[in-house]
Specification:
The relative contact order is 0.25. It is built from three helices and six strands, in the order H-H-E-E-E-E-E-E-H. With about 80 residues, the chain is an alpha+beta fold. A hairpin with a 4-residue loop joins strand 3 and strand 4. The longest helix is centred in the first third of the chain and has 20 residues. The radius of gyration is 17 Å and the shape is flat.
Amino acid sequence: MLVLSTGFVVGGLITQVARRFLPAGAVKEFLTTGVTPAVGPLPIDLIILKFAVGPVALDVSLLSLLGVLIAYLIARSLF
């Protein structure tokens, strides 16, 4: 779980850097276009306490998946 989380954080960082610094074109669109599934808002009513959580979204792009792969390979080589 830690490897997956770390991979998505590193991949998200790589994606944001690519969105900012790559010149406009097909390569930038291919690498940085993502799917963003979202959940929420989720209302929770506990009689004495009522609140809502969300919306929670995850931006998954090709570079995010590359970050997960890199984190997995590093973790596998360490352990």
